[in-house]
Amino acid sequence: MTTLAPPRILLSDLGPIAQLRAGRLTRRIVQLYAGLLLYGFSIALMVRGHLGLAPWDVLHSGLTQHFPIDIGAALVIVSFVVMLAWIPLREMPGIGTVSNAIVIGVSTDAFLLVLGTPHQIWLRTAFLVAGIALQGLATAAYIGAQLGRGPRDGLMTGLARRTGRSLRLVRTLMELTVVAIGLLLGGVAGLGTIVYAVSIGPLSQALLPPLIVQPAAEAQIPSALGGEHGRRVGGDQHLDGGEAVVAEPLLTQGVDAPLEQRRP
Q: What is the pTM of this model?
């Protein structure tokens, strides 16, 4: 019996200037910010559902117990702290990276101002399910716009490249760590955290292909000066968490293999 390989999801790894020159910019900008706003709305739904948050939001909610900030502000602060770790890892931010750090946090707090807290368990469950489903769609939308990976994905891909470990292992260890810290700080975890962890990857992966906006061909040609024009990469993108991965050239044959075992 022949086993068919999963379809390859093609994403382009472009520098910030090349992202702007890659064509279809209006469509990509609209899709990026629609995805980020939807992501903030999905977090607000899960917060109001009170059945457990996504792993990183467990940390964000824990920080609100010790500092006079809302969960959205905590998300923004953590995002920029994570981006500082990109410096030694030599990760390149894009427009979407900075927008991700700001827009999701601000929109989360804005939506929380208008969303009430349901008391019926069926309605809380509906908030949770809708939050996870919309976050999968939001993830696919802003990643498909190809305007830069999110702060946490840059940390993940950078650590995977430096340590030689698989993306799945690095992401799992990262999220276990942030959940543990979040719980120690008094963050909110629950059944929804587990449901999110097992469903967001397959959901995002299923929704991503039709939302990928391919850049113009000229923007995909490698630059002789070191890649500012970007490079075309492809891979089996097993999306394991809230932020989908834009692959590096060596991260193209599945997330379970160590980097040194992969070929372009």
A: 0.78
Q: What is the dihedral of CA 195, 198, 200, 204, to 10 degrees?
A: -150
Please list the pLDDT of the chain residue by residue as tens digits (264 residues). Answer: 555 555 555 566 667 677 777 777 889 999 999 999 999 999 999 999 999 999 999 999 999 999 999 999 999 999 999 999 998 888 888 889 999 999 999 999 999 999 999 999 999 999 999 999 999 999 999 988 888 889 998 898 889 888 888 888 888 899 999 999 999 999 999 999 999 988 888 898 889 889 988 766 544 444 333 333 443 333 333 343 344 443 333 332 333 334 444 434
List the domain boundaries for the chain.
9-261
CA 129 to chain centre: 18
| Residue recorded with tokens 């939308």 | 141
